[in-house]
Amino acid sequence: MSHPIHILERYWNHTSFRPLQEDIINAVLENEDVFAMLPTGGGKSICFQIPALIKEGICIVVSPLIALMKDQVKSLKDKNIKAMALTSGISYNELDTLLDNCIYGNYKFLYLSPERLQQDIVQHRIQQMNVNLIAVDEAHCISQWGNDFRPAYQNISVLRELHPSVNVIALTASAQPQVIEDTMQALDFINPKVFKASFKRSNISYQVRYSEDKLYDIEQLLLQYKGASIIYVRSRKLTVEIHQFLESKGISSTFFHGGISTKEKESRLSQWMHNQKSVMVATTAFGMGIDKPDVKTVIHINLPESIESYYQEAGRAGRNNEDAYAVILTHRSDEARLKNQFINNLPTIDYLKLVYRKLCNYFQVSYGEGQLTTHHFNFNSFCKTYNFKSLQTFNALQILDRNSIIKLTQQFNYRSKLQFIVSNTVLFSYLEKHRNLERIIKSILRTYGGIFEHQLAINLSLIADKASSSEKEVISVLNKLHKDEIVDFKFLNTDSEVVFLQPREDDKTINRISKTVKQQHEVKHQQVTSVLHYINNNTTCKSKLLLNYFGEDSQEACGICSVCLSENKSANSKDIDFIKKHILDMLTETPLSSRQLLDKLPYEKPIIIEALQMLLEYEHIKITASNTYTLL
């Protein structure tokens, strides 16, 4: 039997393990059931990959993250290690062949989703395999109290029935104590070995900053903390807009979201990884499985949906143990926006039943039928047909997906692509001769920044609404522009695909999951409440708040977060009443923006912001339509 360090050197070119890795590997090799909680960047995959390579047979890896499965399989193949992933879109015959290869082809790793594990053919073939280890990634998904609970995960215990003598390793980056106990119980652990790395990241300065002008503050942060950075946003449009803003300020950046091609993703990731571009502006899906040790700053311009997701995203900074910064820029409107997106638009059970029934009608699925049928799906067309609100309906479809009623693939990834391939001058000259196209063209230009520089995925229904037109007319105009060589237009009339995983039984189908859905709603409420507590608590060290959330007792303040820094400076700052009077004196002359006040006042930013908030609260001042402060 090879020694773990020899495997590490041979395949990963490292000569030493990170904290806890070797202890976890040894426990797995001793056939113990193991729960391993290592923070983002802690090297979780090695903890099951090395034991599986040492042992005779194949390791079954269960994961809900298709992209991560593909990345790990590619990485193993690059090391000449035989691995495969059973992702969606595989035909029965192909699945049959792949499973045979796992039995007879000396494969070392089989990655699959919890939903795939429920198939009879998969279970039957796994029973015939020489399984040496069962690894459950993102194990917190098993617990009803876990972040992103997936009921299908609770069926993973079937692997223990198929191979009762094989030990299990459960891995996660973050989980509260209740979730850990729940997970180990669901996986039928007996005398488990539990390894928990500390959540403390003493080199990261966690900061929450109030911001009236987030673009300006992003620029100032990047100039203050020079180095590789990630800016997290919640929409594809914002990734483009902030990237363009940074480039206009001479700050090297690129952007990343689900709507760009695989080739573009690889190119942009490579530029950022090799520091050809210093800033990556991305949606929150970015960063999983990517190990870049020298990230200096992670900036969130929207409030995160949970502490778990924030800790993982912020934890992508400072993996080289040098000073790093995780900053949330927040505005008074952000709290309402967070509640609206994640709480106020949670569908009721009755609404869920309605959406499911209409979805079946939309595809003409008869009662008792439809199981494993696949349908092209246009989300906006569906919402328009039944006059559904898009956000609430999107959440309803996600719940149906998470609870294995349906499977959504390429969720709302608008695959119609558009780019203007002429200059502004040529375009407006063209419009002079084609006035009838002006309304639709201007609606596109106002909706999609960067459409001259990049081919963007577009939402035809949204364009039609903005132009007071129809999708048919928009498509006709774009086809004409394509023919006239004004744009490059690739049209696909579907934005998603729906697979019905269960036969249609209308209310009975939803009744079976109603208790779980209510539980998920309760967890979501708790998550949002925890985020708001973290944001609004200006008296407790931010690092202590995070540690306490994950059940880690910490009495010592970090000394470098926004709260600690504010307390250190407050002893030297002027009396706040004096600062308020100074602000009022300045506003008697002319209205001023927060940026102008910060530039002119000789005090620390947090104390100026606090004074402004107090003046607003007591209605001594107000904010004008042009975003300046003026006296009431």
Question: How would you briefly describe this protein structure?
Answer:
Helices cover 46% and strands 16% of the residues.
Can you give a write-up of this model?
The chain contains 28 helices and 21 strands. It has a 7-stranded parallel β-sheet with strand order 3-4-2-5-6-1-7, with helices on both faces. The radius of gyration is 27 Å and the shape is globular. With 632 residues, it is an alpha/beta fold. The protein folds into 5 domains: 4-196, 3-Layer(aba) Sandwich (Rossmann fold); 204-331 and 537-567, Rossmann fold; 339-412 and 496-524, Orthogonal Bundle (Arc Repressor Mutant, subunit A); 416-490; 573-631, Winged helix-like DNA-binding domain superfamily/Winged helix DNA-binding domain (Arc Repressor Mutant, subunit A, Orthogonal Bundle). Helix 14 (334-344) packs antiparallel against helix 23. The mean pLDDT is 88. It is 46% helix and 16% strand.
Name its key features.
Rossmann fold, Arc Repressor Mutant, subunit A, 5 domains, 7-stranded parallel beta sheet, 28 helices, 21 strands
CATH class term of the largest domain: Alpha Beta
Largest sheet: 7 strands, parallel
Give the strand line-up of the largest sheet: 3-4-2-5-6-1-7
Mean pLDDT: 88
Strand content: 15-25%
**Overall spatial form:** globular
The count of strands amounts to 21
CATH homology-level superfamily of the largest domain: P-loop containing nucleotide triphosphate hydrolases
Our measurement of the CA-to-CA distance between the termini, rounded to an integer number of angstroms, reads: 79 Å
Structural class: alpha/beta
Stated plainly, the CATH topology of the largest domain is called Rossmann fold
**Count of the separate structural domains:** 5
| Rg | 27 Å
Unreliable parts:
none
Number of helices: 28
The residue fraction in helices comes out at 40-55%
The name of the CATH architecture of the largest domain is 3-Layer(aba) Sandwich
